[in-house]
């Protein structure tokens, strides 16, 4: 801190290299009080270092010349010895001055010497240097190497400090005035109070030049250090970049190898997946072919079974038709044979007929209260047998409907049903034609009995009109209930499959064809009943009135008219049976729809 303060006091002390050596003994002496140390050093420099800096950066040549002159005057032999070995004042005098004897004296010796220095004129320091040389002339005269001289003046030697001080005082007294330094060095001047004196006794341009050069060197050194740091950073960055590049290339190589391995694995997996897909496709194809074969086989078996079943049904129907035809022939022959007997038994037949009507009325009442099976058993034994046949037909149809739920088989079943219905209608039409022929024959015989049966016919017409009114009323109620049920189920039937819609359309077409056949049959029957009478009547509805118009002409025997009425009754029974068959077919379709879509029908719709 003291040296820094000295540099702030005067710029030259920033450039003086020996200032630490000069200030060292004072700093050690006043190390606990830096302010006193600074002021002592400043005082020493102002008084005992006068003219030291005039030749800066060189040593004070004028002071060294004074020392050389004094030494030459007092000890020429020693001076000549220095000259002989080329030892100048910068070698034997300047080291003592720049260090203030701190290198060659101990602490006690130095304190004793400087007590005398500070108590005398400032020139006493120069005399002390000459005294040290004279007191050490013996060792110096034995030195003949310049390095030995340098070593001697920079190290402590065996010297009596008291003798040296006495010699210095002797030199102060005996030195001539022309070479005495007290006449060339100013007296002691203390430091000024309040502020330190200005110290500018030095070549300013040299100090500034050195400062500039030193600053320039410092800047160059800073630039060099910056460039070195930058070069080091660039080198570090280059090394780091090279390491990063090497690492990146290595990672890229590893990633590329890993990618190639993954691609190979992926290709192998794709190949395996392709093979598995091919196997799966082949298995699916085989399963599909097997399934198609099984479906085809089951469909063929089912079609064969249905065909056999229909054939057996047709055979049974043929047998039944033949049996009915034989029965009708027998009845006709028996009726022809019994005509004469019945002429005599008109009254008895009337009673029997009334009993028969009462039974039929009772059966109608039971039909209203009973189920559909009781409704089909209305009038006679023939109607019951035909109803049983229809029930037999219903069972296999109901069982087959459960198996028709597989796509194409359902359509085949419906086609087969329609073909069967068509064949049955054709056979019924043929039977009706045969029956009409027989009715023509019966009409020929019945014309003879019309007169006798006038009264009976009137009664029969009244009773039969009431019966047909009740039947039509019941039928209207049943149809109204069916329409209400169909309306309530219409919303639920909208999502049914197209095959069900087509089936219903086929059923409606069949119903229409049946209605048309029934109308044609009624028209034919009307024509047949009108031909023998020749009477024109009003056009008849599809109600029960068209069955009684043939009885309005009273021109024959009553027994013949009774047989004709029984023939019409058979036709009407057939019509009702066909209507019941259509209703049963509709019920079958409804049951099939309920079985296929059980969630869309409530339990109340199952009846």
UniProtKB/TrEMBL annotation:
Transmembrane segments: none
Residue ranges of the region described as Disordered: 534-554
Coiled coil: 423-453
Source organism, top-level taxon: Eukaryota
Keyword check for Membrane: no
Domain Rab-GAP TBC: 1-121
Function: Molecular adapter which is involved in cilium biogenesis. Part of a functional complex including OFD1 a centriolar protein involved in cilium assembly. Could regulate the cAMP-dependent phosphorylation of OFD1, and its subsequent ubiquitination by PJA2 which ultimately leads to its proteasomal degradation.
PANTHER family reported in the protein's UniProt record: TBC1 DOMAIN FAMILY MEMBER 31, WD REPEAT CONTAINING PROTEIN 3 WDR3
Protein name, entry field: TBC1 domain family member 31
Organism, as annotated: Callorhinchus milii (Ghost shark)
């Amino acid at each position: 801190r003291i040296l820094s303060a000295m540099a702030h006091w005067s710029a030259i002390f920033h450039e003086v290299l020996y200032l630490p050596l000069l200030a060292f003994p004072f700093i050690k002496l006043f190390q606990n009080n830096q302010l006193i140390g600074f002021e002592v050093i400043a005082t020493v420099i102002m008084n005992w270092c006068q003219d030291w800096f005039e030749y800066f950066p060189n040593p004070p040549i004028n002071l060294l010349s004074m020392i050389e002159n004094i030494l030459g005057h007092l000890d020429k032999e020693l001076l000549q010895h220095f000259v002989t070995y080329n030892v100048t004042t910068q070698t034997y005098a300047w080291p003592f001055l720049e260090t203030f004897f701190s290198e060659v004296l101990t602490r006690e010796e130095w304190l004793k010497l400087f007590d005398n220095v500070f108590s005398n004129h400032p020139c006493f320091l120069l005399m002390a240097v000459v005294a040290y040389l004279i007191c050490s002339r013996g060792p110096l005269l034995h030195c003949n190497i310049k390095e030995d001289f340098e070593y001697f003046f920079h190290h402590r030697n065996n010297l009596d400090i008291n003798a040296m001080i006495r010699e210095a005082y002797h030199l102060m007294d005996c030195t001539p005035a022309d070479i005495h330094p007290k006449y060339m060095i100013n007296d002691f001047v203390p430091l000024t109070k309040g502020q330190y004196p200005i110290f500018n006794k030095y070549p300013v341009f040299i100090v500034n030049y050195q400062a500039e050069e030193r600053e320039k060197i410092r800047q160059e050194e800073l630039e060099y250090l910056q460039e070195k740091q930058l070069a080091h950073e660039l080198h570090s960055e280059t090394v780091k970049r090279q390491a990063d590049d090497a690492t990146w290339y290595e990672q890229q190589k590893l990633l590329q190898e890993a990618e190639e391995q993954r691609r190979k694995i992926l290709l192998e997996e794709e190949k395996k997946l392709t093979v598995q897909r091919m196997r799966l496709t082949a298995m699916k194809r085989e399963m599909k072919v097997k399934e198609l074969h099984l479906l085809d086989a089951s469909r063929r078996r089912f079609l064969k079974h249905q065909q056999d079943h229909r054939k057996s049904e047709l055979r049974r129907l043929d047998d039944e038709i033949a049996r009915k035809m034989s029965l009708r022939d027998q009845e006709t022959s028996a009726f022809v044979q019994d005509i004469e007997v019945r002429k005599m038994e008109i009254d008895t037949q009337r009673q029997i007929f009334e009993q028969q009507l009462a039974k039929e009325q009772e059966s109608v009442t039971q039909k209203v209260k009973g189920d559909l099976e009781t409704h089909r058993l209305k009038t006679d034994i023939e109607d019951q047998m035909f109803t049983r046949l229809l029930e037999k037909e219903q069972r296999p149809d109901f069982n087959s409907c459960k198996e028709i739920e597989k796509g194409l088989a359902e359509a085949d079943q419906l086609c087969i049903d329609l073909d069967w219905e068509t064949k049955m209608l054709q056979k019924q039409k043929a039977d009706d034609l045969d029956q009409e022929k027989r009715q023509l024959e019966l009409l020929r015989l019945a014309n003879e009995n019309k007169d006798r049966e006038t009264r009976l016919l009137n009664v029969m017409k009244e009773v039969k009109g009431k019966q047909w009114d009740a039947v039509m009323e019941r039928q209207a109620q049943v149809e109204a209930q069916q329409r209400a049920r169909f309306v309530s189920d219409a919303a639920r039937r909208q999502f049914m499959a197209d095959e069900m819609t087509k089936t219903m359309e086929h059923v409606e077409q069949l119903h229409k064809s049946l209605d048309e056949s029934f109308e044609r049959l009624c028209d034919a029957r009307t024509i047949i009943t009108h031909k023998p009478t020749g009477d024109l009547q009003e056009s008849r509805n599809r109600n029960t009135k068209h069955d009684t118009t043939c009885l309005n002409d009273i021109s024959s025997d009553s027994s013949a008219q009774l047989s004709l009425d029984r023939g019409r009754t058979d036709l009407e029974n057939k019509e009702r049976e066909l209507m019941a068959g259509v209703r049963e077919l509709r019920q079958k379709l409804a049951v099939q729809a309920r079985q296929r879509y059980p969630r869309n029908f409530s339990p109340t719709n199952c009846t």
